[in-house]
Every structure is written in structure tokens, then in C-alpha cells.
Amino acid sequence: VSLVISGCADPVADLLWPTDRSRRFWIPLIQALGLGIAGVALLGLTLYLRSVPGPDSEALRAHWPLQGRWRVVTAGRHRLTNYHSGRASNQTLAVDFVIDGPRDASLGQPVFAPISGIVVRAVSHLRLGDDPAGGNEVAIQTDEGFLVTLAHLATDSVLVSEGDRVQAGQEIAAVGNSGNADEAHLHIQAERGGIAIPILFGPERHWPLRHQIIDASP
Q: In this model, does residue 3 exceed pLDDT 70?
């Protein structure tokens, strides 16, 4: 950024202040001003990307669906940090987790219900490459109308059926790579009325950010 600003300062100074004396005064000032503006813009973008979209009261409070040390692959409110942003309206705030370890070490790790509610969808027979893209899924609906979907679950790992009532923290499946998955991971999304809502995890109400390492417990 500083190189770009420095490169722009010279032609601006040539146009406005052609004498050497005026250039020696104005070029450093232009550079300092440009760097200040760029710094404020970068800070603002960073704070925006890290912020929870919408009122905090509308976010879903959830238990961690995993145990152990996990890495956030994609998350957040914008395409810059979240692969799902700009896609279907119900998954634009989705989060993907992989275990902090070797590739595909996530495979078979237990998945726990992040909320209490009724299972409205439970699919367990799909494999890698099968349609739909989300592969095996468990979808849980709360009495308040929140719908949470956990996707790419391992084949034949789902422990619940449609119509079951589950409790937050209950083991319901295992992490897998079914459907359209580059590697074994857990995809989780929340929606209400077909519109994505942010998920705040754990008692600390954590909003996951891309590349974070998280010690999770349901």
C-alpha cells in the first residue's frame, strides 16, 4: 500500500507544485495522509469482517457440535472470508470446521447436537460425490423456529431419525466427506424463515472467524 501511495504522490506533486521546494514539503505530507486513510480503511474492513451481522439478539446461541481442537476453514459475513457468502440465502453464514491435524483426520469424529429440538431431516446413506452437494445431513428445528443443519456427515453414521427430539450435546452422527466435499469436515448453518442467521457457540457466545483454532466442547 505504501508503495502505491508513494507512486501516486509524485505525479500529484508534479501537477500541483512544480518547484523543488514545494515538492519537498508536500510529497511527505501527501504520503502520510494517504497512509493514514489507507490504515483507517483497513481497520474498518477488519472490524467489519470480524463483526456479527445483525442484532445480537437475533443470533442463535448454540453448543459446540464438536469436541477437541478444531480449525475454522471458512466463516464470517463476507465472501472474503466465507466461501458460502453470496450463495443460497439460508447458508450464507455457514461455518466449516476441520480437526487441527493431518488431512482427513476429521473423518469419524463425533458430532453433537448444537441445539435442542426436533429432527426434521436425517440422511445417512450418501457417499463422497453423491448428490445433493451437502451429502448426509441432520437438520434440527427448535420450538422458536430456528433450523440448524449439519452436513457432509459420514456414511451410515447418523444416530437419529426424523421426528426424534434431541437435546443439545447429544451425539447424533460423525464427521464425514459425503456429497461435494474436498475433505472430511463439518458444515453447520442456521436459518430462520429461510434466511441465514449467525451462530454464537458455547457459553462465551463465540463467533467463529476464518483460520481460528478452537478448543471446542459441547
A: no
